[in-house]
Amino acid sequence: MTGFLDIDLGAVVANWRHLSGLHAGETAAVVKADAYGLGMLPVARALAGAGCASFFTAHLEEAVALRAALPEARIMALNGMLPHAAADFVAHDITPVLCSLKEIALWSAEAKGLGRALPCFLHIETGMNRLALPPAELAVLRAEPERLTGVQVEVVMSHLAASDMPEDRQNEQQALKFYAAALQFPHAKKSLANSSGMFLSPFFHTNLARPGAALYGMNPTPGRKNPMKPVVRLTAPVLQIRDLAAGETVGYAGTWKAERPSRVATIGVGYADGYMRALTNRGHAWFEGRRVPLIGRVSMDLATFDVTDTPINPGDALVLLGPEHGVDELAVEARTIGYEILTSLGRRYKRRYIGA
C-alpha cells in the first residue's frame, strides 16, 4: 500500500473562521482543483455547515459537481465562459466570472433569450495579465453601457499578483487601479483579497474575500509564523528495512552512498503519489520526533530513508507531512510551492477525513 492521507476538516473550518475574523466583509472559500487536492465535496460540505455561503471553483464542470452537493450555496466559476456554455451556467445556477467583452456578449444574449437579468462577477485587469477585462475593454463598456443589457454585475473583482510580499508596491498600485475601475459599477460589491491579501492592511479588505491556500494550512504570511492550523497529515508504513555495508549505494544511478554500515527503510510512496522526484537526497520524514533523511532517488512508487540511528521496524509509519514537517517545509525541500505539493497528492493514498 502507499499510505494514509488524513485531512482535518475541523482545521479547515477553524482556518475559515480565523480568516473571517480579519475583516468585516463576507469570506468565501476557494475550492478549485478539488479543494487544492484535498477533496472538494467533503471540504465544501464542512465549510457550508460552518456558515460559508459562497464558493469559487475554476471550471464550470467543478461548479456543477459542487452544485449537486450544495444546492443552496452561491457558486462562482473563475475561468470565464466558453462559447455555448451559457445555458449550462443557467441550468445549474452557477455565477460566471466574466473576463472579456465576448463573454459579456454571450451572457447578455442568454439573458435576453430568457427575458430576465442574469447575475455575474466581473473580473477587472489590474496587473496580473491573465484572465480579466483589460482597460481598453472596460473603456468600451463605459462608452457603450448597453452591452450590459440583461447582465447584473453583482461583484467586481481583481486578483493581487504579489500579496504574499507585503512590501511590494504592486499591491497598492493594483488596489488603486481596482478601486478606480470599480467606480464604473456603483451598485456592485467588490472582491480583491486572496489568502495573503487578507493579511495586508484594511485598504485591501472589501465586501468579499476569496481565501484558498490559507484554508488548507499553507502559510499566507511567508517569513512569519504561520497563523493557520495544519490540515494535512501524510504517513506511510515502512515496507522493508535493508542493512547496507559502507560503500553500497541506494536507488537509481546510486546517487547516495553509505559512508558507514547503514539501515535503509523503503516506503511505497513515489512521484506517482505526488512525492516529488525533486526531493531526491533533499527531503525528510519524521518518526517519533526524529528527523529521518530521504536518501537516493525518489522513484515512481518507492522512496528510501536512512534510519541507521532510528529504532524503526517494518510496518512502522513515517510521517511525510504533518505538524513537524508541513506543506510549506516539504515544498522548500522540493524547490516548489505548497500549492503544487497539495494539488499533486495522488489517489492511491487511503484518505481519512477527521474533525468534521
The whole-number mean of residue pLDDT values reads 97
Individual helix count: 10
Protein structure class: alpha/beta
Query: Segments where pLDDT lies below 50 for 5+ residues?
Result: none
Dominant shape: elongated
Total count of strands: 19
Give the full name of the CATH homologous superfamily of the largest domain: Alanine racemase
* Rg (C-alpha, Å): 24 Å
Distance between termini? 26 Å
Return the CATH topology of the largest domain: TIM Barrel
Main sheet makeup:
8 strands, mixed
Percent strand: 15-25%
Number of domains: 2
Would you state the CATH class of the largest domain? Alpha Beta
How would you describe this protein?
The protein has 356 residues and is an alpha/beta fold. The protein folds into two domains: 9-216, Alanine racemase (TIM Barrel), CATH 3.20.20.10; 232-354, Lyase, Ornithine Decarboxylase, Chain A, domain 1 (Beta Barrel), CATH 2.40.37. It has ten helices and 19 strands. Helix 1 packs across helix 3 (40-50). The radius of gyration is 24 Å and the shape is elongated. The two termini are 26 Å apart.
SSE topology sketch:
Blueprint: E1 4-8, H1 9-20, E2 26-27, E3 29-30, H2 32-37, H3 40-50, E4 54-57, H4 60-69, E5 74-77, H5 86-91, E6 95-98, H6 101-114, E7 118-123, H7 135-143, E8 151-157, H8 169-182, E9 189-191, E10 208-209, E11 232-244, E12 249-250, E13 256-257, E14 262-267, E15 284-287, E16 290-295, E17 303-306, E18 317-321, H9 327-333, H10 338-343, E19 350-354
Parallel strand pairs: 1-19, 2-10, 3-4, 4-5, 5-6, 6-7, 7-8, 8-9
Antiparallel strand pairs: 1-11, 11-14, 11-18, 12-13, 14-17, 15-16, 16-17
